[in-house]
Amino acid sequence: MSGDLLKGVPAVLNLGVGAFAEAIRSGGGTAVDVDWRPPAGGSREAGMELASLVSHPRIEAANRTAFERFLAAEPAVTGIGSAIDVLPEMGARTILHAGAPVAWEAMCGPMRGAVLGAILFEGWADDLDAARALVDSGGIAFDSCHHHGAAGPMSGVTSPSMPMWIVENPAGGNAAFSGLNEGLGKVLRFGANGPEVIERLRWMRDELAGVLARALDENGPIELKPLIAQALHMGDEAHNRNAAATSLLIKRLVPPALRCGADPESVARAFGFMAGNDHFFINLSMAACKAMLDAARGVPFSSMVTAMARNGVEFGIQTSATGDRWFTAPAPLVDGLYFSGFGKEDAARDIGDSAITETAGLGGFAMAAAPAIVRFVGGSASEAIAASREMRRITIGENPAFTLPVLDFAAAPAGIDARRVADSGVLPIVNTGIAHREAGIGQIGAGITAAPMECFVQAVRALHHEIARQAEVPATRSGGI
Fold first, then answer.
1. In terms of DSSP bridges, do strands 30-34 and 11-15 run parallel, antiparallel, or are they unpaired?
2. Domain at 76-288, CATH homologous superfamily
3. Which of 268, 262, 219, 228 is CA-nearest to residue 248?
4. Please, are residues 104 and 135 in contact by the beta-carbon 8 Å criterion?
5. CA–CA distances in Å: residue 16 to residues 22, 46, 448, 457
6. pLDDT exceeds 90 at position 374
7. 3-state DSSP call for residue 76?
8. DSSP per residue over 319-368, as a string?
9. How high is the pLDDT of residue 7?
10. Range 351-365 average pLDDT
11. How far apart are CA 400 and CA 397, in angstroms?
């Protein structure tokens, strides 16, 4: 039999290094590449721990509970308030940032620039030198937006008097928050802190927020899941493409803004600003996703991922069972399309809380709904469709509230299971903007990246150790019976 094999033209299934298959093809044979990677990043110890969690009844039951709470969430925007007034435990001299906690000394350029801009915006210092001195003296406390129920794009920097969208989930009794979107160009979230940036932020606080708050008071809460669902059918994916959702939001808010007695010139400026910024809805999308995912937090033994976020240094994830604990790895540099004059050497590492959209099954998970997005982030429409399909391999289920027309209105995959990521080697896809590594230059491109495997391996190992610890408790208390 071995002789017959050697006489024929070899046909090979190739697992692993692609160069092996190329050698077969160059010799006249045929080879099919199989996308297989060892589980748990190739760690034998982590792989054994992962194996103990597969089909584990306590985890399966916990994931059903967490996922049901996620699906039951009904986020609605109910108002706007200052961060100091609405964010839980927000300090008077606290500045929040995207991603896992990071010290001032370790922050990337865009985040440091945004922090200094927030200090100028608050009036805590008169110039950048005084703002740096204030930080260096320990006069500012820093924390993660996620620790206060909030999510912020790019640098995520949020200071006490900044206006925040209030998104409530009555079904879960929780709320989430995000600031107002500044638009593109030189903006705080990319680290810009010049006079025009500060002036715009103060106008947003003093006029724009007031118009929107009065319009919401007049209109009443706006349910966000139906609005996002409609936007998906109009070509958005609710992360980097929000043109339809922004238009739908304007449509909902203009009539009550005209009825509420607000100054007509203020109304005109407010909606003129929104109409000129197709990304305006992204902050509401993030808050809606945060509210849905926070409803799934705190379920013991659940491996469902409830947050993915980047601080420009580390990529971090959280799971339902582990609450505010972060599992981190170095944030990747993003492969993508760069604006003229810029390249990968100019880029900051991946940054921002906006991956909360992918965590909830939108953004990169829903790229099939937005084929036009690939012209912005790179790739092809067929690759976008394939990405949405592949994400089903790592999710607990699908979200029937969000359907994808190009996939015959199939529901979007949702509920990332850390075990499935570690087992399959399929990483959650994220489409994202790319910031310059220096403060204030702004966005220099966009692309597609993925969450690092190490984050999920850490989460799986933590869950394994918690289950093992719990299993030991009864034996200890009952004398080993």
1. parallel
2. Enterococcus faecalis V583 domain (3.90.1710.10)
3. 228
4. yes
5. 12, 20, 23, 20
6. no
7. strand
8. EGGGTT--EEEEPPPPEEEE-TT--GGGBPPPEESTTHHHHTT-GGGGGG
9. 60
10. 97
11. 10
| CA 100/CA 330 separation, integer angstroms | 11
Highest mean pLDDT among 316-325, 377-386, 440-449: 316-325
What is the C-alpha to C-alpha distance for residues 59 and 161, in angstroms, rounded to an integer? Answer: 42
Dist. CA 385–CA 427, nearest whole Å:
16
Determine the 3-state secondary structure of 179 from DSSP. strand
Mean per-residue pLDDT of the chain: 92
Average pLDDT over residues 116-141: 98
CA-angle at 96, arms to 129 and 88, nearest 5°: 140
Per-residue pLDDT at 207 exceeds 50: yes
Partners of residue 377 on adjacent β-strands: none
* Cα 163 from chain centre: 21
Q: What secondary structure does DSSP assign to 423-478, as a single string?
A: HH-PPPEEEEEEEBSSTTS-EEEEEEEE--HHHHHHHHHHHHHHHHHHHHHHHHHT
The answer regarding whether domain 40-69+298-470 maps to CATH 3.40.1390.30 reads no
Token digits of residue 351:
């940054």
Maximum distance among all alpha carbons in the chain? 90
User: 170: which 2 tokens?
Assistant: 């009555």
CB 404 within 8 A of CB 366: yes
- Amino acid identity for residue 299 in this structure: V
pTM: 0.91
Contact call for residues 152 and 179 (beta carbons, < 8 A): yes
Give the residue extent of every domain in the chain.
Answer: 2-36, 40-69+298-470, 76-288
Of 131, 130, 126, 99, nearest in space to 114 by CA = 131
Going by their DSSP bridges, the two strands 30-34 and 141-144 should be labelled as unpaired
Per-residue pLDDT of 176-203, as tens digits, reads: 999 999 998 899 999 999 999 999 999 9
